[in-house]
Amino acid sequence: MSDLVVEHVSVAHGSTRAVADVSLSIRSGELVAVLGPSGCGKTTLLLAIAGLLPVQDGSIAVGGRELSRAGRTIAPEKRGVGWVPQEASLFPHLSVGENIGFAVPGGRGGAGRGAARADRIAELAELVGLGALTGRAPNQLSGGQAQRVALARALAPRPEVLLLDEPFAALDTQLRTGLRREVAELLRAQGTTSVLVTHDQEEALTLADRVAVMRDGRLAQFGTPEEVYQQPASDWVASFVGDVVELTGTWRAGRVLCALGAVEASAIGFAPADGDTVRLMLRPEWIVPRPDLLAQAAAGADARVAAISYAGHDAMITADLVDGPSVLMRMAAVELPAVGDDLRLAVQRPGLAFAAA
Are 302 and 296 in contact (CB under 8 A)? Predict the structure, then answer.
């Protein structure tokens, strides 16, 4: 088993604590994304798992074997942990096969030693879809192909845990989307326990089994993509992961009375009393046009379409409420309303209520 357990880990850069009391238990074969803004401690945590930074407090273990503790760190090359960097960082003087072979146990400098080693290089090249390109030089590869070589090289010693530090960030959008899906499928097929650091919310939500959201060196939430998006642990997580519509309203028996009517809501992190002022957060796709509500004066709210931002597969609609502010709605790009159209809006699922600032 290659489960990864990070327990109450803190890591410092000089006098600055970059990671503070972070605990993660990652199951064998699981792909976890560590998501957060720049400077939140994502890469620092990855470096500590790799053994490239010592921990100040806490411990890190893989498969029950302790790798790090304050004052004790197993060397990176003895941890059974692989690394895929943001840039492929291939050796320019070695071929694709030699770059992969550099990390195959039993040889150095890319020199092939024995049929078993050659078979392993061929196996890895086929695994990442580069079986026909082992003789090419790195400067003859596309960005996506270079990252595939970096992945094969990281998998060569059969690591127990694979760490990926924003490996798709330098690729163009179309290539990034396809490659990251292929890599995720490959890692799952291999049963490799993997930790992906990213600042790309879509990447984290679409690829990962679970997402660890970090803020200022601390873990803000750890859960499935659905939990992090639909049930954020705080208003900060709600705002950071995805778009939100925020309205002020009054709490009344499990509902928030606001410009969108009486919206059912779950209170997050506090217990409001009837009459309390709260902040209601909604995802734009939770707000929908409901023509069937036109005759129901007490339900929903009247609005007029002010702007449409078309994105191909969907569109973001800005609608001005007749008796309130503007709100955003995300709709599938089929039979979209036009600017100036009047709509009756409703909220199709419970919102998130947070304490007033």
Answer: no
